[in-house]
């Protein structure tokens, strides 16, 4: 946890604590997902705050685990690229954007459901009110960080398009850009399919859409806070660590021993030269030293 950047770490903690609270309070008959989850804007239980809170709620352990795993895997890199403030803004912005797109998709779904009823046009539904559908509308609740997570996947693919990553169950690594394109295609096909799987595919696409627009804006208005190299360094370190844990610890130890040997050799050579210069001072005085010897002695005395 100490190597995880601040915002990513706090997002992980908040999401996990929120889910624990959901499970504990559920035993008392309190469903906080119904309070903080995102309801359809025509439902009686809708609140504007839910556009922010829904992304910290989850419906099950598997839902939470896969979202948090992706947040850890890709969020660490992107936070190092952008810095904490910019990364947090991107996360919240895309999460809210995903919620807005989900609301629009539900509005269109309601229009399709009621299209056979006279007077229910696409825009006239904005004033629609029907108590008989109150419970059904309140049941349209969206929870999960997936919209923001998909936006982070997009950001990683756009920032490191040629980076190869392993995706289960594929046996070979694929480039990040193809990974992102594949995910977009899968989500789009799933969203347009007639089957209802209970997954907010349009929210996923919405998070990626808002992420794409924001990244394009940042690319056209660059600033000094864009540190792609920082993300590359973190990614390389993480990959190096994983390589070591998979059986290449011996190579890492060899590198460490070599580094220690070089350090000790340099230290010994420096000490020997300092002794020679001090002997020269004792025999002939400080004035006998050359400028290079004086500089070397001065630098050596200030080394920690």
Structure description:
- The protein has 304 residues and is mainly α.
- Helices cover 68% and strands 3% of the residues.
- It has 11 helices and 4 strands, in the order ααβααααβαββαααα.
- The protein has helices at 6-26, 32-36, 50-53, 61-82, 84-113, 134-138, 146-159, 176-192, 201-220, 228-284, 291-301, and strands at residues 38-39, 141-142, 164-165, 174-175.
- The longest helix is centred in the C-terminal third of the chain and has 57 residues, at 228-284.
- The chain starts with 5 loop residues before the first helix and ends with a helix.
- 29% of the residues are buried.
Key attributes of the depicted protein:
single chain; 304 residues; mainly alpha; two-stranded antiparallel ribbon; two-stranded antiparallel sheet; 11 helices
Structural class comes to mainly alpha
How much strand content do the residues show? under 5%
Count of beta strands: 4
Q: Radius of gyration, Cα only, in angstroms?
A: 29 Å
Number of helices: 11
Kindly report how far apart the N and C termini lie. Answer: 30 Å
Question: What best-fitting shape do the alpha-carbon axes yield?
Answer: elongated
How many strands, which pairing sense, and closed or not: the largest β-sheet?
Answer: 2 strands, antiparallel
Q: Which sequence of SSEs, written as H and E, runs from N to C?
A: HHEHHHHEHEEHHHH
Strand order of the largest sheet: 1-2
- Which parts are unreliable, with pLDDT below 50 for 5 consecutive residues or more? none
Average pLDDT, rounded to a whole number, is 80
Percent helix, as a range, is 55-70%
- What is the quaternary state of this protein? single chain
């Amino acid at each position: 946890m100490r190597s995880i950047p601040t915002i990513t770490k706090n997002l992980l903690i908040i999401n996990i604590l929120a889910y624990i609270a959901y499970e504990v309070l559920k035993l008392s008959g309190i469903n906080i997902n119904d309070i903080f989850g995102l309801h359809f804007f025509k439902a009686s239980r809708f609140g504007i705050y839910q556009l922010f809170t829904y992304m910290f709620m989850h419906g099950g352990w598997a839902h939470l685990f896969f979202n948090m795993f992706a947040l850890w895997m890709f969020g660490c890199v992107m936070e190092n690229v952008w810095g904490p403030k910019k990364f947090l803004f991107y996360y919240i912005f895309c999460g809210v954007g995903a919620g807005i797109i989900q609301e629009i998709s539900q509005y269109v779904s309601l229009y399709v459901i009621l299209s056979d009823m006279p007077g229910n046009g696409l825009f006239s539904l904005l004033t629609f009110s029907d108590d008989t559908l109150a419970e059904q509308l309140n049941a349209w609740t969206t929870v999960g960080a997936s919209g923001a997570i998909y936006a982070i996947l997009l950001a990683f693919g756009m920032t490191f398009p040629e980076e190869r990553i392993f995706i289960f169950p594929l046996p070979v690594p694929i480039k990040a850009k193809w990974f992102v394109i594949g995910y977009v295609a899968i989500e789009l096909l799933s969203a347009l399919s007639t089957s209802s799987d209970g997954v907010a595919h349009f929210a996923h696409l919405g998070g990626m859409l808002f992420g794409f627009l924001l990244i394009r804006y940042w690319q056209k208005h660059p600033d000094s806070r864009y540190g792609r190299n920082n993300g590359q360094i973190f990614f390389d370190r993480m990959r190096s660590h994983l390589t070591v844990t998979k059986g290449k610890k011996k190579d890492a130890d060899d590198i460490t021993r070599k580094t220690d040997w070089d350090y000790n050799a340099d230290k010994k050579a420096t000490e020997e030269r300092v002794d020679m210069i001090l002997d020269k001072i004792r025999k002939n005085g400080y004035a006998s030293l050359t400028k290079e010897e004086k500089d070397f002695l001065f630098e050596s005395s200030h080394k920690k």
